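call fold(seq) -> tokens
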Amino acid sequence: MKHGFIDVAAVTPTIKVADTEFNSEMIRAKLEEAVSNKAKIIVFPELCITGYTCNDLFRQQLLLDQAKNELKKIVDSTKKLDCIAFVGLPLAVGGKIYNCAAAVSRGKLLGIVPKTAIPNYSEFYEARYFSKGIQEAQYINMFGENVPFGTNILFKCENMSQCVISAEICEDLWIPMPPGAAHAQAGATVIVNLSASDELTGKAVYRNHLISSQSARLACGYIYSSAGDGESTTDLVFGGHNIIAENGYVLAQSARFKNEAVYAQLDLKRLLAERERMNTFHIENIPQYKIVNFNLECTDINLTRYFNPAPFVPSNKKERDYRCEEIMSIQAMGLKKRLEHTSCQSAVVGISGGLDSTLALLVTAKAFDMLGIDRSKITAVTLPCFGTTDRTYTNACEMTKCLGASLKEVDIKEAVNIHFRDIGHDSSVHDVTYENSQARERTQVLMDIANQTNGLVIGTGDMSELALGWATYNGDHMSMYGVNVSIPKTLVRHLVRYYADVCEDNNLRNVLLDVLDTPVSPELLPPKEGEIAQKTEDIVGPYELHDFYLYYCLRFGYEPDKIYRIAQSAFKGVYEDEVIYKWLNIFYRRFFSQQFKRSCLPDGPKVGTVAVSPRGNLRMPSDAALNIWKKSLENIKV
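ret:
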């Protein structure tokens, strides 16, 4: 359970309606099976000890007594099992019958949660035999011990403080004010739901959306276990639709019409980080809640959870295309507003034939279309110097023509050589001065051309470069509006690819595809035999790794050793552990040392939940010490 991960399960056992002995046997077998599969939190369906569809049999004292007896067997069976389990049964308390969830762990009955919302419509008529559960917990005698009974109970793992569990039962989720909302505000990070939801056409989709949205709204893990085909009787069919969700995402769900168990790993630290980020999510110390403690063995689990190696990029093409169109529209709308506000009718873009400047030019063209300004008012400036290759130069020129922008060429070699003479730099020494002089000369030229045309210089640098400080201070670091400042490099590639796919100009499409095939490079060193000599990822590392590190560092505040661990899982078979560790070290070193560049960034549109603007998501001191994170890195065993 290191780093806040915990294995959980939603289980649908085979049952027979009103056969408590058989059902109990099946539940106990499934309990052992789930524990053997490393599950720590195990959830069974509503009224699974008796069956949900017993109807008026719930009034039979014999059935109620037998359900209670079988619960005792289930409790006893967990003595040597390292888990907490929730099972459903009817229970008579104070002359009323309640639909309940019993929490069981290590041979103890921890508490009993009654159902709050008792449906009495359509095919449901639970009010015929069940009463609405009480909220504030009272103690009842069960098996010779006093056990809390009520909806407001939190089950807290003493040796894993992030694990706080509450229970709902079926209809509780479907009402306007589900009790889970109050449970989450009281501190529950995991909500379990014992359900018997019959199948109707279209209901599964709605159920899926309901559970995922509830987990998002409450920033919680949600484990939903539903009754299976053993309940199918008379007019109803049950499909055993089990779902495990976390913060808006379905981690696992079962096939319907099969009695299955589904497993997933919740990341409880991630959920707490999300709640901490949202200052509108208030955790309150509500005195009406009863806290019941339990213990689980703290084991270092093997990660089976899926981690997208490209967290900024949707893996589904349809969703990715939608996201790309949306992002480019946000970028263009931001630029449109700036152009309108400054009364500018022109824009200047330094175009290199690389990915970033290509995206900036495409977005600028889109903004001009929105404004109804002819694209010829866009001045695309190519600034060849010592490292420019024929390939990138040709692509820059051809792309500009295809988009209908005005092309201007300013060869800066002579100006840079004069600058070298002025500062006494030997041009044969290809050091940082040699490189940055070119970047700053380019920016100066762009700024002055913008003055000539009464326009704005559009920044091209992306978020990944800014995170690593891979930008020349007051060179490509500076602009009048940076359209790419919150676009990570891995997403830039997909945005350009998307535009290539949807544009109707074959010539432009071919140019964009060649840009995509060109190695990422600032082209500041002379080519070797006409080819790019300076490849960025050879110097700072693979952008797919750095974007992964950036996402989990900023979005959830993960510590370095946790990022390393999940990167091992996400990039298994792609990068060796030593490589992941090497670039993780470099990421943190550069990220902390280069904040001063991000502290004075030009404006630019925020498009996602991760951004590095000093006026938005990242208000970080320019001179923060790295020591704490460095020690975490040093503790990693590679």
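The chain has a mean pLDDT of 94.
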